[in-house]
Amino acid sequence: MCFLYLIYKLASQLCKAKNVIAMLPFSVWRELMIKLDPLRPLKGDFRDLADKMGFDVERIFKFQAMSSPTQAVLKGCMNVTIDDLMVKLEEIGRDDAKRDVESFGDYLSS
C-alpha cells in the first residue's frame, strides 16, 4: 500500500514538472466538460478536440457514447502539455474553454 502511494506521489510530481493535462484540477476539467460535451453542429465540441489530439474516428465515436466524452478525451491524452491543450482549444474556436485553462496557469504563476 505504501509503495503504491509513493508511486502515485512521484507520478503526480512528474506531471507537475511536465506541465501536463493530468495536473489540471478537477474544477478545470469540469468546466471543459460543461463546454465541450454538448454536440455542436459546426465545430468546437469534444469531437474536434479529440481529432486535434490525434484520435481516429472510431475512437471519437466511442467517446461520444460515454457519459462525458470530454473527460474520456482528456484521460486519453493526460501527458499532453497544458500549452498544447490551449493551442488545440484555440484551433477549434473555443477561446472560452481556453480561458478556463489559462486561469489555472495564472493561479500557478501567482
TrEMBL record:
InterPro entries: DEATH-like_dom_sf (IPR011029), Death_dom (IPR000488)
Domain of life assignment: Eukaryota
BP term (GO), one: signal transduction
Pfam family name, one: Death
Domain Death span(s) in chain numbering: 34-103
Protein's UniProt name: Death domain-containing protein
Lineage of the species this protein comes from: Eukaryota, Metazoa, Cnidaria, Anthozoa, Hexacorallia
